[in-house]
Amino acid sequence: MTPDHAPETARDHGGNIDAARARFGGTDWIDLSTGINRMPYPLARMTPAAWTGLPTTAQKDALIAAAQLAFGTTAPGVALAGAQQAIQLIPRLGPPGRAHVLAPTYNEHAAALRAAGWQVEEVTTLRDLAGADLAVVVNPNNPDGRSFTPEALRALGLQVRRLVVDESFADATPETSLAAKAGAKIIVLRSFGKFYGLAGLRLGFAFADAATVAKLSEMAGPWPVSGPAIETGIRALADRDWAVATVARLREEAAQLDALAARAGWQLVGGTALFRTYATPDAVAAQERLARAQIWSRVFPYSQHWLRLGLPGPASEWNRIEKVLTDGI
Question: pTM of the full predicted structure?
Answer without folding.
Answer: 0.95
